[in-house]
Write a structure and sequence with these properties.
The chain is α/β, with parallel strands linked by helices and 239 residues long. The protein is 36% helix and 23% strand.
């Protein structure tokens, strides 16, 4: 696409896009947290996105995901976990999973006409899958993991994946081939073991934050555009 064509596409996308800043109660004890709804015209789905462990809903990675999703016709609902909202120590797993459920409920209330997907980048995705493994999350048709953190850097194992067998909805893994938190020799068998509930899409040369090796990457397609395309195709195939 030419530079002029790209500018026209971007201008059209921004004209059609609705943005809304919201608050919702994460838990009665932790109170309200911030959220951001981005809805393009003719959206087909709504993706609820949790952030990484040391970032927040406005981090560049989530921003790029939301922008490219909007261009692909996917609305997004980003939110903060309470510890990041209030700048305090990390919340318990129970608080984080309760926040995931509250975020999905708030997202569905904000856009009740759209089918809901849920997940997030790294920690946000893992907390979403943990919540879904404990009990199905109301309204959620599928889970999306941007760089699922299978293990700590330098300590490869699959303990963090054990709960995935209890998830009952389809799952999409979008994982870089250079992700130090998800070695392929471990992640691929995990995904295969989940059967037809799991789809693994490998992002060539991308690391955990989706930085790529441009010289050795086989495709010239932007990684965030690639993931939006793959997610849209996967979401449309869900029943």
């Amino acid at each position: 696409m030419s530079g002029a064509g790209e500018r026209e596409r971007a201008a059209s996308y921004h004209l059609l896009m609705e943005m809304q800043e919201l608050k919702f109660v994460a838990t009665p004890e932790k109170g309200e947290v911030s959220a951001l709804l981005v809805r393009p015209g003719k959206a087909s789905h709504l993706l609820v996105l949790g952030h990484g462990a040391s970032t927040n809903m406005r981090h560049a990675t989530l921003q790029k995901i939301a922008d490219r999703m909007a261009e692909a016709g996917i609305a997004t609902f980003r939110y903060n976990f309470p510890y990041m909202e209030h700048r305090k120590g990390r919340d318990s797993k129970e608080t984080c999973t309760a926040t995931v459920r509250a975020a999905v409920a708030a997202a569905h209330k904000a856009a009740p006409d759209l089918p809901v997907l849920a997940g997030g980048h790294s920690f946000g995705g893992r907390m979403t899958s943990t919540a879904a493994s404990e009990a199905p999350i109301e309204h959620v048709k599928g889970l999306v993991f941007f760089s699922f953190p299978l293990h700590q850097p330098g300590a490869p194992d699959t303990k963090r994946a054990e709960h995935l067998s209890s998830v009952t909805v389809p799952m999409l893994f979008l994982s870089g081939t250079r992700d130090d938190l998800a070695h392929l020799d471990l992640l691929q068998p995990v995904a295969s073991g989940l059967g037809n509930r799991a789809t693994l899409h490998l992002v060539d040369t991308a690391d955990h934050g989706y930085k790529v090796l441009k010289r050795s990457r086989a495709s010239s397609e932007d990684v965030f555009v690639e993931m939006a395309r793959v997610l849209k195709e996967w979401a449309l195939a869900l029943r």
